[in-house]
């Protein structure tokens, strides 16, 4: 907080598409004391005309009071929000009693509480001591928050959630120790989800490198990434989220003499798929089906977007990635599509590239060429009471309830009798491909019937064709011109 991230909704979603991600959920985090409804409206306003793919929003809870609770209800019932993020560190963290109440409110609403799990009090005491000793550089960051400081908060979040029978989602879970806690909790039947970031998988922390500062830290333990991948493979952890939050080099440098002032966050949205493939699938730790689950399907299920998203089937949105495992690319800030001026994965060779990416039926990466269209995406409501979260037994058959139309009676006891689960039992079935396999639209042919015509949409597209790096793409009919498609 206090400084702006480098990528806006246009840059961020363009980069997502370029890397093979066809849908994002971004955070709307209000400053402490501000309305969460306002934060939501503000995010919508900044996103709607910018996004190149569909999106939803997680809303941040940065304080706790009656007004916030009322606004949560309004967000769930009227605005299509089903997830809220609470912080256990930073100046806007909630204390245990507040977390208890916020989790309870989520459970009543059928929403999913997400946590930034680190012990903020321990971090600030450790930071004071380190600074007093003269350890002021970026190496102080990880020293102030060793693995157990994260694991303690993960455990505490799980304990609090269990007291109110709420599910809980541990965002950007970064250490083996924290994974173990989630494993224990899931094995006694608690509904806990853990998300891992590509930075924890693709990079070994270097305490001297200011550009890697993120929280929880990218740990310097070289075994950490492998353990996280094994947890992802065995369904101890369920998904990968980018936690994309970028700052320019000079913004990072502003904290070079006081590590507590380095803005936290690194890139992830563009390279998420490639990094997980390279480190997980290419190395043989994760199989291809599990790759689909942890990068796409599980997120769609947890946030109640399935089977509209996260699935290739008749009636689902045509958001499809065609992945070529035989091609390679080298990640570099020189060629990435993010606004940020460095890339934490610089120089990594990745086997596997998104050769074609289709967003809502439109080919937006065509044989490796990016054709993102600003404003093409739209906000998608996430209905409450996701069956995969609140009604696991019937998750495969129950249709998502309409957002806001909460059937409290049927859901009331869903979480009060935890059931023993075994690793892998909750892993998602591989989406079944319909027999009429999806054809790849040709870049030269006419638009297939039923496909959305951007020229008919209400979005303004006068400056939206992303042509800056693609001189080879010819646009015969410019935006606003005749009605034929762009490709
Ligand atoms: Zn966080």
TrEMBL record:
GO terms for cellular component: cytosol. Residues 403-457 are annotated as: Disordered. Coiled coil: none annotated. Keywords: Hydrolase, Metal-binding, Zinc. Residues 9-364 form the Amidohydrolase-related domain. The modification N6-carboxylysine is found at residue 85. Belongs to the metallo-dependent hydrolases superfamily. Hydantoinase/dihydropyrimidinase family. This is dihydropyrimidinase. It comes from Henosepilachna vigintioctopunctata.
